[in-house]
Design a protein that fits this description.
With 150 residues, the chain is of the alpha/beta class. It contains seven helices and four strands, in the order H-H-E-H-E-H-E-H-E-H-H. Helix 3 packs across helix 6, helix 4 packs across helix 5 and helix 6 packs antiparallel against helix 7.
Length: 150
């Protein structure tokens, strides 16, 4: 039986550190929302696919609308990120991105993001980000199901 973290330790030891340093993953999207939501869904994506580095997590905790927008702009600028995933359609993170969209029509926003949505985006990371985001939204919607209740 392996202890928690053992597998990750073994995998890290097996990876050539020079190769890892040379292959910087360029983030392609920002995941934003309430509390630890962004870190949580990115962590799940990373555990499943190893592609968590494609996303930047931004929590709106303790931030007002203008602050959220400023944090988004600062996070997106270095890699020219145009794709934003948020948790709630009417949440403060979503509203901040929508304000940004007024000045930049190339930004694409996906609300109600879930792990299935982010995985689909990650697996299509070679595609055009807008096309990958649209496909990811379709996959995320399709992942929602109801079971039971007669």
């Amino acid at each position: 039986m392996l202890l928690p973290g053992t597998c990750a330790s073994i995998c890290r030891k097996m990876t050539n550190s020079d190769e890892a340093a040379a292959e910087r993953v360029i983030p392609r999207a920002i995941v934003a929302g309430h509390g630890a939501f962004p870190e949580g869904v990115i962590s799940a994506v990373d555990q499943i696919s190893g592609a968590g580095g494609l996303f930047i997590a931004v929590s709106n905790k303790g931030l007002c609308g203008d602050d959220i927008e400023e944090v988004f702009r600062a996070a997106a600028a270095p890699d020219d990120i145009k794709v934003f995933f948020t948790d709630l359609p009417g949440g403060s993170a979503t509203l901040a991105v929508r304000r940004m969209m007024r000045l930049n029509s190339s930004i694409v926003l996906i609300t109600g993001a879930n792990v299935a949505t982010l995985l689909e985006f990650a697996f299509n990371s070679g595609d055009d980000p807008v096309a990958a985001a649209r496909q990811a939204a379709d996959k995320g919607r399709a992942a929602l199901m109801t079971h039971g209740g007669s």
